[in-house]
UniProtKB/TrEMBL annotation:
PPIases accelerate the folding of proteins. It catalyzes the cis-trans isomerization of proline imidic peptide bonds in oligopeptides. It comes from Thiomicrorhabdus marina. It comes from the Bacteria. Belongs to the cyclophilin-type PPIase family. Residues 36-194 form the PPIase cyclophilin-type domain. This is Peptidyl-prolyl cis-trans isomerase. PANTHER family: PEPTIDYL-PROLYL CIS-TRANS ISOMERASE CYP38, CHLOROPLASTIC. The keyword Isomerase applies. Pfam families: Pro_isomerase. InterPro entries: Cyclophilin-like_dom_sf, Cyclophilin-type_PPIase, Cyclophilin-type_PPIase_CS, Cyclophilin-type_PPIase_dom, E_coli_cyclophilin_A-like. Residues 1-26 form the signal peptide. Its EC number is 5.2.1.8. It catalyses: [protein]-peptidylproline (omega=180) = [protein]-peptidylproline (omega=0). GO terms for molecular function: isomerase activity.
Length: 196
């Protein structure tokens, strides 16, 4: 092997290694969103590698400032806090098209994880999400034979501000405008922004 050929092969190998290292680094840097509430900030990390369509959907709403002025409208102690669909007057905000479930991504509904809210149809998630405040394994994907077994798509986790989430989870709730588990005091998402 000539020295020139050896150096060329070495350069190609180093270039490939560098490219792999940059791509691996990009793949492991998950997007983050800061959700500022009237109870304090919540910083979340999103699993774009495991739930790409769900994360893309969530970030679309974040970047459109859709969540600004919405509320956590459903709070159940020792279960979860849900928001992202209603304003403080309980008016439902118009949303984009519903997305296909990615609940079969291997992620589980554990304390501090974010998951998409939906109706009985597994593929009906739009803007509403919830934060698990308990180990909610019964919400995990098991199989695709029924709506319940489909589970709920986990797409991120709280990395700072779980104290705020727990404070929200302990507020007094009741019925309002035909909805149950509505906090007696307004729990507002002042704004949600992607952290650069």
């Amino acid at each position: 092997m000539t020295r020139r050929l050896f150096l060329a092969l070495k350069a190609i190998a180093l270039g490939s290694l560098l490219s792999f290292s940059i791509n691996a680094s990009a793949a492991t840097s998950n997007p983050q969103v800061l959700i500022e509430t009237n109870k304090g900030p919540i910083l979340v990390e999103l699993y774009a590698d495991k739930a790409p369509k769900t994360v893309e959907n969530f970030l679309t709403y974040v970047n459109e400032k859709f969540y600004d002025g919405t509320i956590f409208h459903r709070v159940i102690k020792n279960f979860m806090v849900q928001g992202g669909g209603f304003d403080k007057y309980l008016n439902r905000k118009p949303t984009h098209a519903e997305i296909k479930s990615e609940a079969d991504n291997g992620l589980r509904n554990r304390i501090g994880t974010l998951a998409m809210a939906r109706t009985d149809d597994p593929h009906s998630a739009s803007s509403q999400f919830f934060i698990n405040t308990n180990q909610n394994g019964f919400l995990d994907h098991r199989e695709k034979s029924s709506s319940r077994a489909w589970g709920y798509t986990v797409f991120g986790r709280v990395i700072k501000g779980m104290r705020v989430v727990n404070e929200i989870s302990h507020v007094r709730t009741g019925f309002k405008d035909g909805m149950g588990d509505v906090p007696a005091e307004t729990i507002e998402i002042i704004k949600a922004r992607q952290v650069k």
